[in-house]
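User: Please fill in residues for this 385-position structure.
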């Protein structure tokens, strides 16, 4: 008799499982990339649940651990010649089919939890507002603790920016982070929650080139605007004013000539203050120059006032951990509001039910499918043996 029919073919099952895993992940990642990159109206309502898919390798490991344990049990239970008389024959194909159904059923249930959604249509939302870019200084000098012993200049600037967002209604806002270089951290958007999320992640370590180039920040902010849409625009520079590169007044003048108001917010005090130095987020001491002397920083309010004057906007100065935006907001409110068009998807339709149905269906089939060989196949195997 064929005693091999009473044990699992672990080697071939492993090959089949790995082949399926390769196919699954290639298809999944390809579709994931295509939907996110090519289909504007696609999203997962709860994308955090997709991380559960990373647990599938644990299911595979558990499956093969159980198979090896069962084979050892068969061997220890009785001699091979006695197995046909005391155990039922098992089918490696059926075993793989059961695991295939179970594994994919779980995968579909995870996708159902993530809830794929597809926009049913798009509509144009029209609101009145202006477009403004926040140019946020993230140079090392913004770590100084002259405004508040517990919060540095940058932390206060970020809180003030969030406070400013809470005062906006229908305006588009974006963020440019700058030091010796500048980059767009948040493109112009009316999604203030998303802007706040990206704002929270801004830190000086993001810059490979330190220093302070306010002119570059103004130019980068200016270039983000669509100058043909007829919407009024403003740039708000939040900095300690220690401009190392020059040209900031000229940049503000150019912005004003293009119809963009430039306002400034002074972050710091005029008292000389040492700059804390950090390594991997841990305070290691005070910043030193090449000669080993402590580096000090202080607010250059004259520079910021000059920039604001050239840009046609107000100058505001932080006091302690508070930035009074009332005057700045009053000036912004004087700017004539223009209609801002935003193309949005009016509604997202849930698609989780398809994945939930397939997942439950596969698990139901898996539950009723036996690993034992069918009678006809078993008889043929015995005959051939």
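Assistant: Residues filled in for all 385 positions:
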């Amino acid at each position: 008799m064929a005693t091999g029919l009473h044990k699992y073919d672990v080697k071939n099952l492993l090959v089949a499982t790995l082949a399926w895993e390769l196919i699954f992940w290639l298809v999944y990642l390809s579709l994931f990339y295509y939907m996110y990159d090519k289909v504007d109206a696609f999203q997962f309502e709860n994308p955090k649940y997709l991380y559960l898919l990373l647990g599938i390798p644990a299911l595979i490991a558990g499956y093969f651990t159980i198979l090896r344990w069962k084979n050892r049990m068969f061997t220890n239970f009785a001699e091979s010649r006695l197995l046909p008389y005391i155990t039922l024959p098992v089918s490696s194909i059926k075993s793989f089919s059961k695991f295939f159904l179970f594994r994919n059923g779980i995968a579909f249930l995870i996708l159902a939890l993530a809830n794929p959604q597809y926009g049913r249509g798009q509509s144009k939302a029209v609101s009145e507002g202006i477009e403004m870019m926040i140019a946020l200084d993230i140079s090392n000098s913004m770590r100084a603790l002259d405004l508040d012993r517990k919060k540095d200049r940058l932390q206060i600037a970020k809180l003030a920016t969030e406070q400013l967002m809470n005062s906006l209604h229908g305006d588009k806002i974006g963020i440019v982070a700058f030091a010796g270089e500048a980059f767009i951290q948040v493109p112009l958007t009316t999604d203030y929650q998303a802007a706040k999320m990206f704002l929270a992640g801004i830190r000086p370590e993001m810059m490979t080139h330190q220093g302070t180039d306010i002119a570059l920040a103004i130019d980068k902010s200016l270039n983000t605007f669509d100058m043909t849409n007829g919407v009024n625009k403003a740039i708000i520079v939040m900095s300690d004013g220690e401009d190392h590169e020059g040209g900031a007044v000229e940049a503000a003048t150019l912005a004003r000539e293009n119809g963009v108001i430039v306002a400034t917010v002074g972050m710091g005090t005029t008292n000389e203050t040492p700059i804390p130095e950090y390594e991997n987020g841990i305070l290691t001491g005070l910043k030193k120059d090449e000669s080993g002397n402590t580096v000090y920083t202080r607010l250059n309010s004259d520079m910021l006032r000059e920039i604001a004057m050239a840009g046609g906007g107000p100058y505001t100065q932080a006091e302690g951990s508070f930035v009074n935006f009332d005057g700045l907001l009053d000036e912004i409110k004087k700017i004539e509001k223009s209609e801002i068009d935003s193309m949005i998807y009016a509604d997202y339709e849930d698609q989780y039910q398809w994945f939930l149905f397939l997942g439950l269906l596969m698990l139901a089939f898996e539950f009723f499918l036996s690993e034992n060989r069918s009678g006809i196949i078993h008889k043929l195997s015995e005959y051939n043996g």
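For context: Residues 3-115+351-384 form one domain.
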